[in-house]
């Protein structure tokens, strides 16, 4: 099992107990890796959502193109993330996806995904947990884009990226790679590239964030979190404890469904 494959397994292991069989089913989604280039479009808004993707290597982002030709970046995808879950029940893609860096992706289709749900309740839980957390991240972004000034937006974005990268062991001594241009960061935060540049300069002058090209160093995580007024509840990986009970699938098959809520009927 490769290191890249381990990233996907580690992602799911945060939300449920995975047996050896579960891991084999999960890794079956990565049988056909394809190497892709920075800037390459993986899918476009309005396309038929025939495939989902896992990222084994590299970074990507989802985006919407506005009427004036500008672009709003919606989400940053990291190794181990799954692309396209939001489009699962739609006939057209709601957003496009493009690579930020060179990378490796693996595609799978609706029948394969439905087969995973049928074969493993644990993996079904994992997919639902991941999709709900992706939605929570979009909700949080909407709030801070609407309510926060530029410095807080950038501080929040950087702290969030730090936490996400730390989970996949991509942070060393407070330093990590952020391979986005100032224009791309601006498209994610609703700021101009000039404003992003000025904000990074202010952070450097105050010793909050040091950025050299694509390398980011955070001298004080506490100071950055304080500036961002960061509440990380939406990134919390805690799930109901029953998700980690290995026998829950067998038990639920044996027990009849019981009504636990009375909505006023007889």
UniProtKB/TrEMBL annotation:
Gene3D superfamilies linked: Jelly Rolls, Winged helix-like DNA-binding domain superfamily/Winged helix DNA-binding domain
Q: Which keywords appear in this protein's UniProt record, sorted alphabetically? A: DNA-binding, Transcription, Transcription regulation
Offer one Pfam family short name for this entry: HTH_Crp_2
A cellular component term from Gene Ontology for this protein is: cytosol
- The protein's superkingdom reads Bacteria
* SUPFAM superfamilies hit by this protein: cAMP-binding domain-like, Winged helix' DNA-binding domain
Q: What is this protein's record name? A: Crp/Fnr family transcriptional regulator
Every HTH crp-type domain range: 148-222
Q: Which GO terms describe its molecular function?
A: DNA binding; DNA-binding transcription factor activity
Q: Identify the InterPro entries for this entry.
A: cNMP-bd_dom, cNMP-bd_dom_sf, Env_Response_Regulators, HTH_CRP, RmlC-like_jellyroll, WH-like_DNA-bd_sf, WH_DNA-bd_sf
Q: Which intervals hold domain Cyclic nucleotide-binding?
A: 27-84
Locate the coiled-coil region(s) and give their ranges.
none
**Source organism of the structure:** Modicisalibacter xianhensis
């Amino acid at each position: 099992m490769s290191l890249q494959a381990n990233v996907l397994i580690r992602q799911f292991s945060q939300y449920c107990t995975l047996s050896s069989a579960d891991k084999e089913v999960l890794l079956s989604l990565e049988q056909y890796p394809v190497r892709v280039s920075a800037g390459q479009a993986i899918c476009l808004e309005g396309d038929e959502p025939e495939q989902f993707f896992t990222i084994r290597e590299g970074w990507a982002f989802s985006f919407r193109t506005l009427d004036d030709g500008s672009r709003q970046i919606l989400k940053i995808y990291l190794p181990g993330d799954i692309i396209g879950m939001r489009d699962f029940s739609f006939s057209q893609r709601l957003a496009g996806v493009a690579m930020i860096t060179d990378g490796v992706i693996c595609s799978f289709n609706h029948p394969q995904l439905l087969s995973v749900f049928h074969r493993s309740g644990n993996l079904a839980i994992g997919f639902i947990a991941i999709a709900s957390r992706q939605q929570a991240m979009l909700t949080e972004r909407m709030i801070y884009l609407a309510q926060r000034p530029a410095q807080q937006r950038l501080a929040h974005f950087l702290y969030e990226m730090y936490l996400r990268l730390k989970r996949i062991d991509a942070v060393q001594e407070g330093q990590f790679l952020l391979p986005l241009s100032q224009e791309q960061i601006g498209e994610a935060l609703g700021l101009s590239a000039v404003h992003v540049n000025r904000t990074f300069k202010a952070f450097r002058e105050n010793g909050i964030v040091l950025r050299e090209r694509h390398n980011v160093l955070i001298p004080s995580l506490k100071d950055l979190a304080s500036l961002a007024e960061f509440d990380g509840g939406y990134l919390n990986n805690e799930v109901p404890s029953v998700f980690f009970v290995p026998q829950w699938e067998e038990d639920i098959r044996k027990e009849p469904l019981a009504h636990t809520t009375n909505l006023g009927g007889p």
